[in-house]
Design a protein that fits this description.
With 246 residues, this protein is mostly helical. The chain is built from ten helices and no strands. Helix 2 packs antiparallel against helix 3. It comes from Megalodesulfovibrio gigas (strain ATCC 19364 / DSM 1382 / NCIMB 9332 / VKM B-1759) (Desulfovibrio gigas).
């Protein structure tokens, strides 16, 4: 493996630690500099040039962790072109300021708000259906798929740079996040069907749904912690039968 290849491998592995030094001022900036350092050492043998390149990453940085390998790969690709005189250093600042926060919003919607929910609901359905080993295999598939996704986007990001970001925009990931949310609603209904007690009456079911909906509205409009609301609802549910018996 070449010097650059070893440096890229180290930068990729370090991208997993980008949030290890999270701080309130720069958020993930320390972790980003740590991930970039092996690649910058290979691209800039001169210490002064490397110091100037490093300064481009010490400012504020915060993005979804699933996108970090891609961003590190793209940044190193741009640094390689800057070192060769193909791009001015200012282009890195422009790309960093726009791409980082755009991908952060997409990541929150697609990964945290859709895919992770899809995995958890589908796993819950498998467990409720009495298929725990299938649920375990499903989880392992997603686990290894995530790391393959990180590696693939890192390599493509370094190889194609800005070209891949342009192609990524055409994928319309926000639209896919919305479609997944519709699918998650179907999975939630399936989970309720699989886990619902068979002897529960329709009136009891309707009352339960009403209580959950009302609790959600209280959380939304009052700002009270959902954990507090859930505790109050469970306490009331336990107290009502006791009061009726009394």
């Amino acid at each position: 493996m070449s010097v650059l290849g070893r440096a890229l491998a180290r930068s990729f592995l370090r991208s997993y630690l980008v949030a290890a030094a999270f701080n309130t001022r720069g958020m993930q900036n320390v972790g980003l500099v740590y991930a970039m350092e092996p690649g910058l050492q290979a691209i800039y043998p001169d210490a002064q040039a490397r110091r100037e390149a490093r300064q481009r990453y010490v400012a504020h940085y915060n993005s979804h962790p699933f996108w970090t390998p891609l961003l590190v790969g793209v940044f190193l690709s741009l640094e390689d072109k800057i070192a060769k005189g193909l791009f001015p250093p200012q282009v890195l600042t422009t790309v960093k300021d726009t791409t980082v926060y755009t991908l952060s919003a997409i990541g929150d919607s697609l990964f945290a708000g859709s895919l992770l929910v899809f995995w958890s609901l589908s796993t819950a359905c498998m467990v409720a259906a009495g298929l725990p080993w299938l649920a375990l295999a499903w989880g392992l598939l997603w686990f290894f798929g995530l790391h393959l996704f990180k590696l693939a986007t890192f390599l493509v990001g370094f190889k194609e740079g800005l070209k891949f970001l342009t192609r990524l925009k055409r994928w319309r990931l926000i639209d896919w996040a919305l479609r997944l949310k519709y699918g998650n609603a179907v999975l939630l209904a399936l989970f309720l069907h699989l886990s619902w007690p068979q002897d529960m009456l329709a009136g009891t079911w309707f009352m339960g749904v009403t209580v959950v909906g009302a609790a959600a509205m209280v959380v939304y409009y009052s700002g009270i912690s959902r954990e507090v609301i859930a505790l109050l609802v469970l306490t009331a549910a336990a107290a009502v039968p006791l009061l009726l018996d009394g």
